[in-house]
Amino acid sequence: MMTIIRQHFHVDYQGQQAQFAIESGELLAGKLPSKAVKLVREWAKDHQEELRENWELAVALKPLQRIAGADND
Predict the structure, then answer these.
(1) Which of 2, 39, 41 is nearest to 25 (CA)?
(2) Rounded CA gap, 25 and 37, in Å?
(3) Is 33 exposed, middle or buried (0-12, 13-18, 19+ CB in 10 A)?
(4) What is the mean pLDDT of each run of 10 residues along the chain (73 residues)?
(5) Domain extents for the chain?
(6) Longest Cα pair distance anywhere in the chain, in angstroms?
């Protein structure tokens, strides 16, 4: 049986971790304050193409490209 993994990205926010779906912005795992969830979803919407490209790199076991965070780091 093959496991299907949804395209997602990881978030670290003030010591908390979460995973969000790339396409929908759905919180898949972890827990963040509601204000942070809103910020992450807005950021993900603006960076969806970059997130998809990094997903493809990850699947191919290639190094990921840095995407500036919501705090522009």
Answers:
(1) 41
(2) 9
(3) exposed
(4) 84 95 96 96 96 96 90 61
(5) 8-59
(6) 41
